[in-house]
Amino acid sequence: MRQDTKMAAEAEGFATAIEMPPPGNGSEGGIAIRELGHSYGELETIEQLDLELAPHGVLGLVGPSGCGKSTLLELIVGLREPSRGKVEIDGASAAAARLAHCAFMPQRDLLLPWLSAIDNAALALRNRGLRRAAARREAGELFERFGLAGFERARPAELSGGMRQRVAFLRTLIAGKPVLALDEPFAALDAITRGEMQGWLANALSQHPRTVVLVTHDLEEALYLCDQMVVLSSRPARAVGRLSAPAPRAVDRDEAVTDPAFVTVREHAMHLLREGTK
Amino acid sequence: MRRWLLPSLLLVALVGAWQLAASSGALADLLNLESYLVPSPAEIADSLWESRGLLAENAWVTLQEMLLGLGIAFVVGVGLAFLMHLSTLIKDTVNPLVVVSQTVPILVLAPILLIWLGFGIWPKAVVVALVCFFPITVSTLAGLGSGDPEAAKMMRSLDASRAQILWRVETPTALPSFFTGARLAVVLAPIGAVFGEWVGASSGLGHLILFDNSQLETARLFASVVVLSAIAIILFALTAFAQRRIVTWR
Q: How far is the C-alpha of A148 from the C-alpha of A122, rounded, in Å?
């Protein structure tokens, strides 16, 4: 009898451990940025920024190198507190509350070399107390769906650049947070792989819709993946322009980016980017 | 192949040259000594065999001192490194003392340890530990801090606690560096044990070396050195083996 109660309690603990924020219902993951400013000591990195992003919106942050894009991303996800203004995610503005809503994918894939691909992807589940076997089972389903079947046990060093990036993205997705923050996820890849990965990501997001903030310096990538885009000036960053992606978009990446409407918006963004660096 | 062949060839050449120089009396003449004071490798090998019981008995004593001392060094060394990694306050407080502990000559400390800890295994083990914990602490601490700060951010956004970041990211990151320190420590251990025995012991290879020195038993003295080196080489090889089995991602 005592044994039974103990097991029931354990099973209950298990259930709460694997419970994830429900990302699919469309009511979570809204981001509001108000009068945001940030400085590192004397150095002002973000001058002033206001932004609104609806749940399941995909926002591209584009700007010249060193303009504070990565800092902005860290401010949004709650890895940093801003010097001025505030960031709210679903109405919560405390850093810890924001961090609980966001999964962050850093610039390099940062897969842990001592873990297999599947254990890397399942990191968030393990951090929440799920046992290894259960975490692997859960992550394994997404491995199959996203073209990684057969590579579960491979160490990161055995994977190609594109596959490493896919595992890193799955690791972010499996965390089950309503907001995904991607910091130049494909910058390190060659042009062909990058194109493939953009198509892959678009497909993954259509199957698992989330609110996404994507930092990139690739205008085509931003316009192809995002529904709105903010062009930032060089440091201290401010918004020099806001653009909406041309709709409707072709599903195929190559078709999408050669569409005349797409090219027009891209050239306009390029112009804004140049203005912002003056 | 090359890794073993080249050092072996060099060793054979050196031992061969020594054999020739010693057995012809050239080395003794050169040093202006009686020839029994300059044993040849063959004589040392003879002594190794003849005194095998005595050598094994004393080697066992020294080995126990080394293992106990290394055990203390690993626990204290790794423990200090983790504490200093987790708290800047502890690091700033303890780190200078850790460095100071290495500037005090062991030959000064050893007699005091003998008075405090008695005549048994402990003063020797403590000398071994004092010599060996330093490389372990320094290398483990450096390894723990060598991780990518971006990895910690990634883990935080994946709901990792501080302890989980430490265990899942920082500890594996520190392992290669820890093993570098461990390999240094195991080859320092025989030196510590011999020092400890020289100050006061009734058995052990260090004690035997001191005794043979006073008795001009030079062949057996060298035999003791050979046994001591063999122990160090075996410990080093075991550590390297453990590293290859554990750090499989490099």
A: 14
Question: Cβ(A218)–Cβ(A257) under 8 Å?
Answer: no
Strands A84-89 and A31-40: antiparallel
Beta bridge partners of A103: A180
What is the spatial distance between Cα A238 and Cα A244, in angstroms, rounded to a whole number? 18
Q: A240: which residues sit within 8 A by CB, 6+ positions away?
A: A231, A232, A233, A272, A273, A275, A276
Domain B43-245 has CATH 1.10.3720.10: yes
* Cβ contact, residue pair B168, A100, below 8 Å: no
Q: Which domains, ranges and CATH numbers included, belong to chain A?
A: 28-110+179-277 (3.40.50.300)
CA B154 – CA B160 distance, rounded (Å) = 9
Crossing angle of helices B88-103 and B52-86, rounded to 10°? 150
A210 three-state secondary structure: coil
Give the one of B151, B164, B248 whose C-beta lies nearest to A127's C-beta. B164
pLDDT in tens, A102-117: 999 988 889 999 999 9
pTM for the model: 0.83
Spatial separation of the C-alpha atoms in residues B204 and B191, rounded to whole Å:
12
The percentage of residues in chain B with a pLDDT greater than 90, rounded to a whole number, is 68
Residue-wise pLDDT for B99-116, tens only, equals: 888 888 887 888 888 889
Pairing of strands A31-40, A211-216: unpaired
Q: With a cut of 0.85, is the ipTM above it?
A: no
Q: Does A253 touch chain B (CB under 8 A)?
A: no
Q: Does B168 touch chain A (CB under 8 A)?
A: yes
- Among A18, A123, A165, A213, the residue to mutate for chain B (most B Cβ within 10 A): A123
For residues B173 and B147, the answer to whether their CB atoms sit within 8 Å is yes
* Chosen from B154, B177, B179 to mutate, greatest number of chain A CBs within 10 A: B154
What gap in Å lies between CA A180 and CA A24, rounded to an integer?
13
Selection from A235, A243, A231 nearest residue A273 by Cα: A231
- What is the distance of C-alpha A90 from the center of its chain? 17
Half-sphere exposure of B42 (CA within 13 A, CB side): 8
Spans of all domains in chain B: 43-245
Q: What are phi and psi of A153, to 5 degrees?
A: -90, -5
Tell me the C-alpha distance between B55 and A27, whole Å.
79
Q: Is B79 left (phi over 0), alpha (psi -120 to 50) or beta?
A: alpha
Task: Test B160 with A127 for CB contact under 8 angstroms.
Answer: yes
Q: How far apart are the first and last CA of chain A?
A: 75
Mean pLDDT score of chain A: 83
In order, the DSSP letters of A33-54 are EEEEEEEETTEEEEEEEEEEE-
